C-alpha cells in the first residue's frame, strides 16, 4: 500500500509578474510542495494566509501598498494570536541584499537575491523542510485525531486515537506505541519518523528512546517522568539531547505549590 506524504503548502507574493511566475513554476516542480496561491498583491496574500493553511511563503520585499518588511511585521503581530501562522516559514526574495539583516530579525528561513536560480532555490527549500521536520508537526487537517495502523499486506486497519497513546518507545528500527501498561502497537518505522506524524502540541520527545503524550503526563521527580496509567514504569528524562519542546511546556505551565491528599474522615456523625 502506498502511504501519502503530506505536502507543504506554499504562498508566493511578488508584484513582478515575471518573478512571480518563476518562483511559482519552481514550486510546482518541487516534490513535497503544493502551490496554494500566487499573487502580485501582498494584501491579498495576507488574506489567503489568514483563511488557508499555509506552511511556506516566498515573499518579495519592494512592493507598493504593503512592502515585504511591513508584511513581516504584520505577520509577527497576527501570529501571536494564531499558532498556525506562528510556524509559517518565510523565504525572502529581493533584488537587493540590504533587507537581509532585518528579515532575519523576523526569523526568515532564507534570503534569496534575484535573479533566483533553481539550484539556490532548492537550498532554501531544504532549509524550510528541515525547519518543519524539527517542528514535528502533523500536517494533516487540524481535525485529524488518529493514526491508522495497518498490516504489511494492507488488509487490516486499526484506528489509533491520539488520546489513547500514553508514550512511544524506540526499539531498534521499530517504534512501540503504548496504549496501556501491557498493550502496544509495533510500528515498522523509527521513532523520529513516527513523531512527524503526530501533532507537536500533544507529544514531546524526552529521551532518545522515548516520547510522551503531554495529556498523560502526571509528574516529574528528578529526572523521572510519570505517565498516567503506567504505574509500573517511569520514563527517565534524557541527560543529553534537544528536548526544548518538553522543557518549554513544563516551564510555561509551571506554578509553585504542593500536592495534598486529605484523608477520608471515617467518623460517623451521630444524630
Automatic annotation (TrEMBL):
Location of the Response regulatory domain: 9-129
Instruction: Please give the residue positions where the record annotates the modification 4-aspartylphosphate.
Output: 60
The Gene Ontology terms for molecular function here are: DNA binding; phosphorelay response regulator activity
The keyword Transcription is annotated on this UniProt entry: no
**Is Phosphoprotein among this UniProt entry's keywords?**
yes
- Keyword set, alphabetical order: Phosphoprotein
Please name the PROSITE patterns in this protein's record: RESPONSE_REGULATORY
Q: What SMART domains does the database record attribute to this sequence?
A: LytTR (SM00850), REC (SM00448)
* InterPro entries in alphabetical order: 2C-system_Tx_regulators, CheY-like_superfamily, LytTR_DNA-bd_dom, Sig_transdc_resp-reg_receiver
Write down what this protein is called.
Answer: Response regulator transcription factor
Name the source organism.
Sphingobacterium corticibacterium
Amino acid at each position: 500500500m502506498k502511504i501519502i506524504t503530506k505536502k507543504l503548502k506554499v504562498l508566493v507574493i511578488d508584484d513582478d509578474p515575471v518573478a512571480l511566475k518563476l518562483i511559482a513554476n519552481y514550486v510546482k516542480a518541487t516534490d513535497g510542495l503544493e502551490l496554494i496561491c500566487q499573487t502580485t498583491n501582498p494584501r491579498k496574500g495576507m488574506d489567503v494566509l489568514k483563511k488557508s493553511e499555509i506552511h511556506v511563503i516566498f515573499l518579495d520585499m519592494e512592493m507598493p501598498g504593503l512592502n515585504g518588511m511591513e508584511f513581516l511585521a504584520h505577520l509577527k503581530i497576527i501570529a501571536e494570536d494564531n499558532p498556525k501562522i506562528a510556524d509559517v516559514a518565510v523565504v525572502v526574495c529581493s533584488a537587493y541584499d540590504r533587507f537581509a539583516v532585518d528579515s532575519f530579525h523576523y526569523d526568515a528561513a532564507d534570503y534569496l537575491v534575484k535573479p533566483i536560480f533553481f539550484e539556490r532555490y532548492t537550498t532554501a527549500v531544504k532549509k524550510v523542510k528541515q525547519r518543519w521536520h524539527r517542528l514535528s508537526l502533523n500536517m494533516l487537517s487540524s481535525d485529524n485525531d488518529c493514526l491508522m495502523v495497518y498490516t504489511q499486506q494492507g488488509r487490516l486497519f486499526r484506528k489509533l486515537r491520539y488520546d489513547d497513546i500514553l508514550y512511544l518507545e524506540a526499539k531498534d528500527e521499530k517504534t512501540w506505541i503504548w496504549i496501556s501498561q501491557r498493550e502496544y502497537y509495533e510500528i515498522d518505522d523509527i521513532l523520529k519518523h513516527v513523531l512527524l506524524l503526530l501533532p507537536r502540541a500533544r507529544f514531546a520527545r524526552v529521551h532518545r528512546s522515548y516520547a510522551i503524550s503531554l495529556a498523560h503526563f502526571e509528574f516529574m521527580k528528578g529526572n523521572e517522568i510519570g505517565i498516567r496509567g503506567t504505574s509500573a514504569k517511569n520514563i527517565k528524562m534524557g541527560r543529553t539531547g534537544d528536548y526544548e519542546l518538553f522543557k518549554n511546556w513544563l516551564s510555561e505551565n509551571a506554578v509553585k505549590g504542593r500536592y495534598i491528599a486529605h484523608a477520608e474522615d471515617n467518623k460517623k456523625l451521630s444524630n
